[in-house]
């Protein structure tokens, strides 16, 4: 059931599969890409929630300019499927945080969000200019960001796709966001570790992680499938670990 190779395509909802493949394609282009060592108990996770089996698979990498490249796929029973991905930059690099989440249920895709989130007061100018020049597709069902969503940029896209055409349009936006991020990374030189800009980005990343940890839905499911202590460790030291 895991989205971890081309041989496993189309075993999740096709949109989740195709976005996972897209992310891996961009990931493979990153300079100095390496596997990031992490606790083995978090790589393939199995539990039970409300009588249904919960499976989680994680892929964790790092590269020049990116301290954590996390791709997670999860399935609960025969209905709920989740794709979660975050690219956390090194604070010395003036780069935003790339994030995408897609949730599929028995009736199809219920939520899809993608963003390049700022790690200072604003996005880097060259990235903001590229995003402002993008022609975003029209989506019928826009969704409101959560109350803790102040971490997102004004370009954040949060929708419920209405049909396969809108699913394809959402994937195209994910593709464009990744292209903007990776093309910026290739030509960017880092700041000093003690530079004011680096410290500001460090603090903003910490704030981003703290806000993401406020997602009680994730914590509640993990707490019931495993236990509260395990859920806290998984969320705080693995999903959204401070730089």
Textual characterization of the structure:
- The protein has 243 residues and is α+β, with helices and mostly antiparallel strands.
- It is 35% helix and 26% strand.
- Strands 1, 2, 3, 4, 5, 6, 7 and 8 form an 8-stranded antiparallel β-sheet that branches.
- Helix 1 runs parallel beside helix 3 (164-186).
- The chain is globular and about 50 Å long.
- It starts with 13 loop residues before the first helix and ends with a helix.
- Residues 1-10 have low confidence and may be disordered.
How many strands appear in the DSSP assignment? Answer: 8
The first-to-last residue Cα distance is 31 Å
Provide the β-strand percentage band: 25-35%
Biggest pleated sheet: 8 strands, antiparallel
Given as residue ranges, the uncertain stretches (5+ residues, pLDDT < 50) are: 1-10
Helix content: 25-40%
Please give the structural blueprint:
Elements: H1 14-28, E1 34-35, E2 44-49, E3 52-63, E4 66-76, E5 80-89, E6 97-105, E7 108-117, H2 125-133, E8 157-159, H3 164-186, H4 196-212, H5 216-225, H6 228-239
Antiparallel strand pairs: 1-3, 2-3, 3-4, 4-5, 5-6, 6-7, 7-8
Notable characteristics:
single chain; 243 residues; alpha+beta; 6 helices
Summed up:
With 243 residues, the protein is an alpha+beta fold. It is built from six helices and eight strands; from the N terminus they run H-E-E-E-E-E-E-E-H-E-H-H-H-H.
């Amino acid at each position: 059931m895991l989205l971890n190779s081309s041989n496993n395509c189309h075993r999740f909802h096709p949109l989740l599969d195709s976005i996972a493949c897209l992310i891996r394609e961009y990931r493979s282009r990153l300079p100095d890409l390496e596997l990031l060592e992490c606790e083995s108990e978090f790589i393939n996770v199995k539990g039970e929630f409300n009588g249904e089996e919960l499976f989680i698979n994680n892929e964790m990498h790092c590269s020049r300019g990116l301290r954590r490249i996390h791709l997670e796929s999860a399935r609960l029973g025969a209905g709920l499927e989740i794709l979660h991905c975050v690219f956390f930059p090194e604070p010395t690099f003036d780069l935003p945080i790339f994030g995408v989440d897609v949730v599929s249920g028995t009736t199809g895709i219920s939520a899809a969000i993608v963003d390049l989130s700022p790690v200072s007061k604003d996005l880097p100018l060259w990235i903001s200019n590229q995003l402002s020049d993008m022609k975003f597709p029209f989506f019928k069902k826009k969704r409101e960001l959560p109350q803790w969503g102040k971490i997102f940029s004004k370009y954040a896209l949060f929708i419920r796709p209405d049909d396969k055409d809108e699913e394809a349009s959402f994937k195209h936006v994910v593709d464009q966001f990744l292209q903007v991020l990776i093309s910026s990374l290739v030509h960017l030189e880092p700041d000093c570790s003690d530079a004011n800009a680096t410290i500001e980005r460090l603090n903003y990343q910490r704030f981003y992680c703290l806000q993401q940890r406020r997602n009680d839905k994730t914590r509640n499911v993990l707490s019931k499938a495993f236990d509260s202590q395990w859920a806290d460790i998984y969320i705080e030291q693995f999903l959204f670990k401070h730089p």
